[in-house]
UniProtKB/TrEMBL annotation:
Protein's UniProt name: Large ribosomal subunit protein uL4
Polar residues: bias regions: 44-56
UniProt KW keywords: Ribonucleoprotein, Ribosomal protein
GO CC terms, sorted: ribonucleoprotein complex; ribosome
Keyword Glycoprotein in annotation: no
Source organism (scientific name): Gracilibacillus halophilus YIM-C55.5
Length: 63
């Protein structure tokens, strides 16, 4: 099992932790990671965009 360094809040190393090889020993899928990052960034958008329709646009029409 691989070991990972364990740090406290001040930044000094206090020990090592053994992590599971089935979880942390695999090759990451870059496409899935990219989709997860894009999804997270899209959910953080404010979403206050708007588009004016014909009724909202003032003037410009000739009778």
């Amino acid at each position: 099992m691989p070991k990972v360094a364990l740090y406290n809040q001040s930044g000094s190393q206090v020990g090592d932790v053994e992590v599971n090889d089935a979880v942390f020993g695999i090759e990451p899928n870059e496409h899935v990671l990219h989709e997860a990052v894009v999804m997270q960034q899209a959910s953080l958008r404010q979403g206050t965009h708007a588009t004016k329709t014909r009724g909202n646009v003032s003037g410009g029409g000739r009778k």
